[in-house]
Design goal:
Layout: H1 23-28, H2 45-63, H3 72-92, H4 99-104, E1 105-118, E2 123-135, E3 152-158, E4 164-170, H5 173-178, H6 182-185, E5 188-199, E6 203-210, E7 216-224, E8 232-233, E9 240-245, E10 254-261, H7 268-283, E11 295-301, E12 324-325, E13 336-337, H8 340-347, E14 354-359, E15 366-369, E16 373-377, H9 383-396, E17 459-462, E18 465-471, H10 488-500
Parallel strand pairs: 2-8, 10-11, 10-14, 14-16
Antiparallel strand pairs: 1-2, 1-5, 3-4, 3-6, 6-7, 9-11, 12-13, 15-16, 17-18
Helix pairs in contact: 2-3
The chain binds zinc ion.
């Protein structure tokens, strides 16, 4: 049944597992269909077909020369058919809702791969490639970034008019590395990539970074001129994706892709079961449980040569497709990958706005970076909590509300600057945060006493320090190992982000 709900306008070929005998797979996968139309905007396909049909009908009628020779039944049938076709035309012809999008963008996705290099003080960008990927999955109406989260931002500007066409904030591993001891003495490069709708005309893409005062600074610019700039085309990638949860057109939904890491081909059944289990972890927790109809979840079939992931502190190394590893930056439970190219390549098999990497392992661990990826192990007893916690980082830019980590040698958040995370404040600019959710009678800061247990306030301790950074609630999934326990401020931030994909 699920395959009937595939978006008919999506261009990515779906390939079924050739040797599959699982009924689950048979029902969920669509047979190979590698020749799908890409040469005209998909929205026009249906009306075009109907229009052609109408034209043929008219031609046949013309060929009869005497259309009025039709008998009453024939005439009735003809006019009923014509009315039906005209109605269909009216219903199916796209309204110019995305007119502005079509003025500036094509239907596909532009991906820019680059190296982000530097040390604790400096950074620079080196472009690697422009890549054209599948159809754009993001919003076609909300093109500027309404949130202003993240350490980095891309802005696409029309070269002629200087009009801002598209902007999105994000974070990467590079900024985390910049805060380590290693970055004080060494110089390193990280592979990064950003995606945006494919521009129709010549544009400039600016790469911005937050400076020490959290203000944006332009660090790098690159022009993209359609048909002149060298472009690698990967639109018809033959990869294998499957639906885990489908609610509608990817342009109007939050699309999440789950990437398998450390699953061997023999573990295909486990991957399917794990994907379904993680779908339930997500969709049974607030606020996702009330937004099931706004979310699509996709899976990808991709196998690792070995099962599991690297644990360098134990001398364990596995040959896996996304090259993930525990012990990132010396933190045992922190899993990351520096092979972001592999991540982006695999993710491009499905429409996506956010990436979840599911690591086939039972040890407690994960990681989440805003608008970059969330990572979680599959078989720990706290996997449900880790998923919600890390995905909230990746989806809505939520900060950690706990304050013991060993993650950094020095304070992560300068106390004289308001952090950009929606659930943390240094009280420098609290009005921009959840002040509207705090009652007049609630003292600021709020004492951490039982009477305020369920009250939105301003509690000292958060962002890895016990002084100077404040969180909104006594406890929260962003603070403690509690599944389905996001505090009201975090819930609002996640809800706002989900809603932004409905535009
Ligand atoms: Zn919270």
């Amino acid at each position: 049944m699920a395959s009937f709900f595939m978006p008919t306008t999506w261009n990515i070929p779906i390939v079924s597992e050739a040797n599959s005998t699982s009924p689950w797979m048979k029902n969920t996968y669509r047979p190979a269909n590698l020749k799908m139309s890409t040469n005209r905007p998909d929205e026009h396909v249906l009306p075009f077909v109907v229009f052609n049909y109408l034209k043929k009908y008219e031609a046949r009628r013309e060929a009869n020369r005497e259309p009025d020779n039709l008998n009453n039944y024939g005439r009735l049938r003809y006019s009923a058919m014509k009315r039906l076709i005209l109605t269909l035309l009216l219903v199916l012809t796209p309204l110019p809702l995305n007119a502005e999008f079509r003025d500036h963008f094509r239907e596909s996705t532009l991906r820019i791969d680059y190296l982000h290099s530097g040390n604790s003080e400096k950074e620079e960008y080196q472009r690697i490639a422009f890549i054209e990927e599948h159809r754009w999955a993001g919003s076609k109406t909300l093109l500027e970034d309404p949130f202003d989260y993240g350490y980095y931002k891309i802005e696409m500007v029309d070269l002629q008019s200087e009009e801002l066409l598209y902007a999105r904030g994000y974070a990467t591993l590079f900024r985390e590395w910049q805060r380590t001891e290693d970055a004080k003495s060494g110089y390193r490069s990280f592979y990064e990539a950003v995606t945006m709708p494919m521009p129709r005309h010549a544009v400039r893409i600016d790469f911005l970074s937050r400076n020490h005062a959290n203000d944006w600074e332009k660090k790098y610019s690159v022009d993209f001129i359609p048909r002149r700039t060298e472009l690698i085309r990967r639109k018809n990638l033959r990869c294998r994706r499957f639906q885990i949860h489908y609610s509608g057109n990817p342009n109007e939904k939050l699309d999440i892709v789950i990437l398998p890491e450390g699953y061997t081909r023999e573990e295909w059944k486990k991957l399917r079961e794990d994907c379904l289990r993680f779908k339930e972890y997500l969709l049974q927790s607030a606020p996702f449980n009330e937004n099931r109809d706004k979310i699509n979840i996709w899976g990808v079939n991709a196998w690792s040569k070995e099962s599991g992931t690297d644990i360098p502190s134990e001398g364990i190394y596995k040959d896996t497709i996304l090259n993930t590893s525990f012990d990132a930056f010396g933190i045992e439970r922190y899993i990351t990958t520096e092979d972001f190219k592999a991540v982006k390549d695999l993710a491009s098999c499905a429409p996506y706005d956010r990436i979840i990497i599911l690591v086939n392992h039972s040890q407690y661990g994960g990681g989440g970076i805003y608008n970059h990826y969330a990572m979680v192990t599959s078989d720990n007893e706290d996997s449900d909590f880790v998923l919600l916690h890390e995905f909230s980082h990746a989806l809505a830019g939520l900060g950690d509300e706990y304050y013991s980590s060993g993650f950094v040698e020095e304070p992560f958040y300068p106390l004289d600057i308001e952090p950009w995370e929606p659930n943390l404040t240094t009280l420098v600019d609290f009005e921009s945060k959840w002040m509207d959710m705090v009652d007049d009678e609630t003292p600021i800061p709020t004492p951490a006493t039982p009477e305020y247990d369920t009250i939105v306030g301003v509690y000292e301790g958060g962002g890895y320090v016990d002084k100077g950074v404040y969180r909104p609630f006594m406890d929260c999934t962003m603070k403690s190992r509690i599944y389905d326990g996001l505090c009201p401020v975090c819930l609002r931030a996640v809800q706002d982000m989900i809603d932004s994909y409905m535009e």
